[in-house]
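Complex 343.
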Amino acid sequence: MSTIDGGPDKRYVRQRVAQGSGILDLFERASLTADLRAVEDLLLERSRSRSELITAASIHTVRSGGKRLRAAMALLAAQLGSYQLSNVIHAAASAELIHAASLVHDDLVDQAARRRGRVTVHTRWDNDVALMVGDYFFALAAAEMSLSPDPRIITFYAAAVQTIVEGELSPVMQAEPAETALSQYFYKTGAKTAALFEAACKAGMAAGGGGDAQIAALGRYGFDVGIAFQIVDDVLDFTGDEDTLGKPAGNDLRQGTITLPLIYALESTGSPLLRAVIEQSAADESVIDAAIAEVLSAGGADAAMAEARRYIAQAIGNLDAFPNSLARQSLIDLTEFVVNRES
Ligand code: FPP
Ligand code: MG
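Predicted structure with magnesium ion bound:
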């Protein structure tokens, strides 16, 4: 998948361009393209360190892309109030820097070789560099927050980072009974993924001069979108393929990570094969393939997608209090992208 110099291979880039066109069209329709470009330029500018090594690894990370959904949501949330790019750009960049930091550290913890079709930082350099680059991004995020005009923004992101770390260290311990598994899964998902979407939306609304009730509404919107986003991520691990995802599919089962499609499949089948895979967590590839097929035929992925759509409907409900506008419609359209994405 990755080329020797760490660049993504051409097939992956072509697929990303084709799929990315959905979100890029949305950004264009939302008149966000230029402002997101400014966020991107800021991320690249901030990546230039006095250390050549940090600069190289940071630029490698920023250039490996991502959809910039969290930044876009911060900008759109600000547009629900009184919008000035200079008031929200630092809050939008903070979300992307925290996200980048968490992924560099996540790949280090998981010892993942690739993300988004690119070789990961700890693989291209080493574990120490990945640890330091993640820390460097956190420091950059803190610096951006300090430039945000509204002091509430730093509290939103500080709370989110605390929650992400707590969530990351809260495994889903058991797949059965479903009630226990679901409670652990939704706690973890809310903490490790949704908390940052929530903070980005709250920060954007605060930067747009929103009051407490508006900030709370945007926070709930972001949280619900974040849950849906992670559910789709977990579904794609069963339904996607490596070329499209830019990382190996089936990794969750391979690592014994219990996610929503598996919980639902086990609830409906009580399958001994699925139980065995969860217990062993290091089954051979043919067993993993059989387990994936079983989750799919049991409707585990479909049931999880239905749950993601319920969260999206709930997310959109939080926008009811805002008058119709291009920004509000774009926040609604963005939820469609979240549930329909293929990578
Ligand atoms: C990706 O999830 C990982 C996260 C959403 C959070 C990772 C957080 C940490 C490593 C803690 C350090 C971060 C902070 C903010 C202090 P995933 O592993 O399910 O998805 P993947 O398949 O894309 O890796
Ligand atoms: Mg991971």
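The two ends are 15 Å apart (CA to CA).
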